[in-house]
């Protein structure tokens, strides 16, 4: 069989409201993960290792930092003459103009460009999940099943009502419920969808014409319609997979990075690629104490860091304690301050002898927020960007 022409589309336009202050000033796919990586690095790296080189990124909400990070796609071998990376912002003046009202709507607005590209298969990905997957295996499953759509599924623990819940029989998807109040299974869609291009385009056009309110999210009309009327196959993913779209899951994924139960950013043969910042190596003072942590380039540690991620350019001064926390770019923790179970966004500053967080819900410090010396921020609070306490 000839190798199919595959177009990968990363839907990177949503506002990421469940991440609160962390996405007030950036799109969710550009949120740092594991120090100097970004969320969008995960699907881009999987695509690079899977040898899929036609990649379109559909943007909408606050694309500036995402564009700066992705640039021409060089870290993922997408800076090429034929194919490579294409950024698709909202536009005016043609069919599909305006702002999308959901991920299926965002996909449909690019239908004209997809037709012009004329792929055999369209691989649709989200950019807020942590996983490692060879998409070529999904293609194999798709053809073996004679499917119109193949969705990657995985089992998750805990509350699955915030996912798309799937029922499967003999490798075929027989049931699909979008964020159900009472889930029937613990099997969910991992938001990796491989469509026959002609089926996708024809179905989107027909459903859009029938539905006066538009397609909105894929779970509202598009995927349920295909499950009922077409052949939808399952590709089961049994490895690590985690949704990073909420503050608790974002924090928990980082703790799993540190204790060895989660994702391996540098797995041999399949490392996560990124546009690394050009920074000096981290400086760790002789009196510093670091246990079970990731310390990024450009950071400086004089104090104590335990089971935490210290982002590029972050500073932990002498006598400060950072425990079970995630510090993003340029955070400063002054002498005597203490952070526990906290996510501190870019350039947040914690003053001398301040206390932030504690047992319970995760505390969030927004970009450029300031915690004054000697004050405290209780567990579970969120300081908005540029705010003070």
TrEMBL record:
Domain of life: Bacteria
Limits of the Glucose-1-phosphate adenylyltransferase/Bifunctional protein GlmU-like C-terminal hexapeptide domain: 289-360
Pfam family, one: Hexapep_GlmU
Keywords: Glycogen biosynthesis, Nucleotidyltransferase, Transferase
Residue span, Nucleotidyl transferase domain: 8-259
Cross-referenced InterPro entries: ADP-Glc_PPase, GlmU/GlgC-like_hexapep, NTP_transferase_dom, Nucleotide-diphossugar_trans, Trimer_LpxA-like_sf
GO BP annotations, alphabetical order: glycogen biosynthetic process
GO molecular function: glucose-1-phosphate adenylyltransferase activity
PANTHER family on file: GLUCOSE-1-PHOSPHATE ADENYLYLTRANSFERASE (PTHR43523:SF2), GLUCOSE-1-PHOSPHATE ADENYLYLTRANSFERASE-RELATED (PTHR43523)
Similarity comment: Belongs to the bacterial/plant glucose-1-phosphate adenylyltransferase family.
Name the record gives this protein: NTP transferase domain-containing protein
Species annotation: Arthrobacter mobilis
């Amino acid at each position: 069989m000839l190798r199919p022409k595959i177009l990968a589309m990363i839907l990177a336009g949503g506002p990421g409201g469940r991440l609160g202050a962390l996405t007030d000033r950036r799109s969710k796919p550009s949120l740092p993960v594991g120090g100097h990586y970004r969320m969008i690095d995960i699907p881009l790296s999987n695509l690079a290792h899977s040898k899929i080189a036609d990649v379109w990124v559909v943007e909408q909400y606050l694309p500036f930092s995402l564009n700066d990070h992705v640039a021409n796609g060089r870290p993922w071998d997408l800076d090429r003459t034929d194919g490579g990376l294409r950024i698709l912002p909202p536009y005016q003046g043609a069919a599909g103009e305006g702002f999308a009202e959901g991920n299926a709507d965002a996909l449909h607005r690019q239908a004209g460009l997809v037709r012009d590209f004329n792929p055999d298969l369209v691989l649709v990905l989200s950019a807020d999940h942590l996983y490692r997957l060879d998409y070529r295996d999904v293609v194999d499953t798709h053809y073996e099943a004679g499917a119109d759509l193949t969705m990657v599924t995985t089992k998750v623990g805990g509350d699955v009502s915030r996912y798309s819940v799937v029922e499967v029989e003999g490798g075929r998807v027989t049931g699909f419920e979008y964020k159900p109040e009472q889930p029937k299974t613990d099997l969910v869609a991992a938001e990796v969808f491989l469509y026959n291009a002609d089926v996708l385009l024809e179905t989107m056009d027909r459903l859009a014409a029938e539905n006066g309110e538009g397609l909105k999210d894929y779970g509202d009309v598009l995927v349920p319609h295909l499950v009922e009327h077409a052949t939808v196959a399952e590709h089961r993913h049994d490895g690590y997979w985690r949704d990073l779209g909420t503050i608790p899951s974002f924090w928990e994924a980082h703790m799993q990075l540190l204790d060895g139960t989660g994702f391996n950013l540098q797995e041999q043969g399949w490392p996560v690629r990124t546009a690394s910042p050009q920074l000096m190596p981290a400086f760790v003072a002789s009196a510093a104490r670091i246990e079970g942590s990731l310390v990024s380039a450009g950071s400086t540690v004089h104090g104590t860091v335990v089971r935490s991620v210290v982002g590029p350019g972050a500073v932990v001064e002498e006598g400060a304690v950072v425990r079970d926390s995630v510090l993003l770019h340029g955070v400063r923790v002054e002498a005597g301050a203490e952070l526990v179970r906290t996510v501190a966004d870019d350039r947040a500053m914690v003053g001398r002898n301040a206390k932030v967080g504690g047992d319970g819900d995760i505390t969030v410090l927004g970009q450029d927020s300031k915690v004054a010396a000697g004050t405290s921020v209780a567990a579970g609070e969120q300081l908005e960007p540029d705010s003070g306490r």
